[in-house]
C-alpha cells in the first residue's frame, strides 16, 4: 500500500493499530453520509472478505455508467447577514460557543428533527456493520466445518493406505489446518469490529438519545415558563387595574400577592429552563467533541 512505500517498518503493530483506527473512523464518517450510506459501492466494499474479492469487483465494474454515487446537489448558499441559519444550526452553533441558546418553538422543533436524522444515520450504519460482523462469524463457522472435513479426509486417506501418511493425506490435512487458521482470523476480525466500531456507534446512538431526551424536557420547561409568563402579565394587569380604579387596600394587597406568587413561579420555571439549556449545551458539546474520534 501507499504507507509501505514511504514509511519504513510499516508492519509495526502500533502503526497497524493506528491505521485500523483511522479506517474505522473513515468508514464511520462515510457511513453517516446521507447518500454514501445507501450506495452499492460502499456495501460491496464492506462485504468483500479480502483484497482479491474487491479487485474482482472493481474489474467487473461498469465504467460506462457515469451516474454519480452522490447526486449532484448544489450546496445551499451561505445565509446573508441577518438571515436565519439552517434548521438545527442555531442551538448547535450556540452550544459550541458562549452565545446564549436561541428562543422560539420552531428552532427547537428543527433541532429535534436534526438530532433525529443524525441518530437514524448512525443507527443505520450500526445495523449494517452488525450485519457485516454476523457475516464474518458465519464465514468463520463455515471455514471451521470445512477444515474439520478436510482433516477427516486426510485421516481416512492415511488409514486406507497401508504405507501410512501419503501426499494426498498430508495435503488434505494441511488444507484443514489452514482453513482453521483462516476461521480464527475471521472470528478475531468480527470480535474486534464488534468491540470497537459497532460499540462506538452504539455509544453515539446513546448520545443522540440523551440529547433528544434533554431537548424534550427543555421544550416542556419552555412551554411551562411561557404559560407562567402569561400568568404574570395577567396578574400584573389585574393589580394595576385595581390600583388605578382605587380599589380597597385589601383587594390591592390580594392582587399584589397574586402577582408576586406568579412571579416566583415564573422565575423558578426560568431557572429550570436555564438548567436544561445547560444540559443540552453539554450534550451537544460532548457529541461534537467525541464524534471526531
Description of the molecule:
The structure is a single chain. The chain is built from 8 helices and no strands. The protein is an all-alpha fold. α5 crosses α8 (249-290) and α6 runs antiparallel to α7 (167-244).
Describe this structure in a few short sentences:
By secondary structure, this protein is mainly α. The protein contains eight helices and no strands.
Termini separation: 24 Å
Using only C-alpha atoms, the radius of gyration works out to: 32 Å
DSSP helical segment count: 8
Count of extended strands? 0
Overall mean pLDDT stands at 75
Beta content comes to under 5%
Topology:
Elements: H1 2-6, H2 13-31, H3 40-47, H4 51-59, H5 89-95, H6 105-160, H7 167-244, H8 249-290
Helix pairs in contact: 5-8, 6-7, 7-8
